[in-house]
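It is worth pausing here to work through a concrete case rather than discussing structure prediction in the abstract. The textbook approach is simple: state the sequence, then state the predicted structure, then interpret. We follow exactly that order.
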Amino acid sequence: MNNYDGLFILNIQGKDEGLKEAIESIEKEIEGFGGKINGTQKMDRKRFERMAGDLDSGFYVNVQFTLAPDKVEPLRSKLTLNEIVYRQFYLKQETVAA
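Step two, the predicted structure:
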């Protein structure tokens, strides 16, 4: 199991009340692949530097989780199908020897 930081940009234009449900759905998907949520940080809505079609901003959420390395790509594929997840980025946390 590795520790990861997942940055998710959510497309919840005009649906701020759906933010909690969107975050919960991402966490449930991670747990569905055998992961464990270590923390979630709601950032804020930010405007994009470049327009991406008709979408001009997204809500950023950072989720720290533990997951088996072979489950990251299936998780990414599954979340790609979720219309609320506009973009997703994963960073493996390096372990530091004491």
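Step three, interpretation. The beta strands are 2-10, 36-52, 55-67, 85-92. DSSP finds two helices and four strands in the chain.
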